[in-house]
Specification:
42% strand; four-stranded antiparallel beta sheet; five-stranded antiparallel beta sheet; 159 residues
């Protein structure tokens, strides 16, 4: 088993379960205004599956409840690290990092997964802010979000 991003699409049933998990989390964490906005639309959604050093399957999912008006920067977005067994469950959450209403930048975006050796898994993540962007190599650990993971390298630009 190799550390890697999986190349095949995540099964529809699994995607449906993950969207339900993220929707439940949105309902619990969003403000009243964000919840009201989200109820008017379906989320934009993306999920990537990957293998960690011990061969275990993991998912990284992103959801964004896009507002009806393009200039409304208060809509809800979330990223989640997810384990599939025994049933899909959230290990850690990523908060919105960018106020713009662009799905590519509202929460961190998993770009690749690499083997760091010694049983460690690295993730390469693109993170956008309102006036900055970075590409970070971090040591992935279950149960931690990006701010808690060990950052090994970062290439960043900002105003």
């Amino acid at each position: 088993v190799w550390v890697r991003l999986e190349s095949k699409p995540v099964e529809f049933d699994t995607q449906t379960q993950i969207v339900a998990l993220l929707s439940d989390r949105m309902k619990a964490l969003a403000t009243d205004a964000q919840r009201r906005q989200a109820e008017k639309t379906s989320p934009l959604f993306q999920v990537s599956s990957f293998r960690v050093a011990d061969g275990t399957l993991r998912y990284y999912a992103r959801a964004f409840w896009k507002p009806e008006k393009d200039l409304d920067r208060s809509s809800y977005a979330v990223g989640a690290w997810i384990a599939p067994l025994p049933t899909p469950h959230i290990l850690a959450l990523e908060k919105r990092t960018c106020g713009y209403e662009d799905f590519e930048c509202v929460v961190p975006n998993l770009q690749n997964v690499v083997d760091l050796g010694d049983g460690k898994t690295g993730i390469i993540v693109a993170i956008s802010g309102d006036d900055s962007a970075s590409l970070d190599l971090l040591e992935y650990r279950d149960g931690t979000n990006l701010t808690q993971m060990h950052k090994l390298q970062s290439i960043a630009a900002g105003e």
